[in-house]
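Running this now, will post back.
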Amino acid sequence: MPRVKIPLEPYRDQITSWRHEGFTRKEILEKLKNEENFSISMGLLCRHLLDWKVRVTCPRYVGDDELALQNRIVHYWQHNFADKGIAAELKKDGFEISVLTVGRRRREMGLLKRRERIGGKKHPPKAEMTGSSAADVDDEARPTASGDDEEAIVYDYD
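Update: finished.
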């Protein structure tokens, strides 16, 4: 027996307005069940929302919550918390956010760790440290006088 096709076009305006008002997909399904007296699956609802060019996922934090989240990430970053620690503290503060999302948001705000600033490498490879171009590799290279009259180049990594 073929499936019965449920036309959602008559409800398109109502469903899209609920979505733009911030209702979750589960809430929309409940509203359709209670107010319109029919039930559909989550997959069908998502498929129609995509066809109608309605954003399926909604931003988790909007307005003041977004600003509060950013301020807390900055605060914990300035106190030398790692992403894992920031995520744990944010969860204590009531924000549901993963470690990966903390890292992504931190980088978007320009809060970079040292190795992120220099291309993901902690130190340049030793092969790059030879020859006359060694000073070009490390800005903190400084010549120091040795016991001889020659100059030795010392690289300060930390």
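Residues 9-51 form one domain. More later if anyone needs it.
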